[in-house]
UniProtKB/TrEMBL annotation:
PROSITE patterns: APAG. Transmembrane segments: none annotated. Residues 3-128 form the ApaG domain. This is Cobalt transporter. The lineage of its organism: Bacteria, Pseudomonadati, Bacteroidota, Flavobacteriia, Flavobacteriales.
């Protein structure tokens, strides 16, 4: 698990290898990840958007941006958390993801970025 706190928002990420399959005659490596977003600050905040950079060992990079996470824009009061699961496909058995969430502080109506710590994706059979 990797964790990082930015401006009172703690991000924790756990990853899993889900398996391999063929798509368009190419092998794909499926990974899952579970993200927990915890408001350790003093103000209520809302996640408004996500921005991901996904890289694999073959130097393929995918950028994913959009509103919310899995169709939700969670509001977190102080002490509350939101956990969700998602996944990605890579063309190599190794890779990494990083990015940030756009958040709004309800008390100040200001937007701020919360860093998502870089986390590794690796198929267990491919490690040494």
């Amino acid at each position: 698990m990797v964790q990082q706190v930015t401006k009172g928002i703690k991000i924790s990420v756990e990853t899993t290898f889900e398996g391999t399959f063929y798509k368009d005659y190419k092998i794909q490596y499926a990974f899952g990840y579970k993200v927990s977003i915890e408001n350790q600050g003093k103000n209520t905040v809302q996640l408004s958007a996500r921005h991901w950079i996904i890289k694999d060992a073959l130097n393929h990079t995918t950028i994913v941006s959009g509103p919310g996470v899995i169709g939700q824009k969670p509001i977190l009061k102080p002490g509350e958390s939101h956990t969700y699961s998602s996944g990605c496909l890579l063309t190599a058995p190794f890779g990494a993801m990083s990015g940030h969430y756009d958040m709004v502080d309800f008390a100040t109506t200001s937007y701020f970025k919360v860093n998502i710590p870089t986390f590794k994706l690796s198929a267990p059979f491919a490690i040494n």
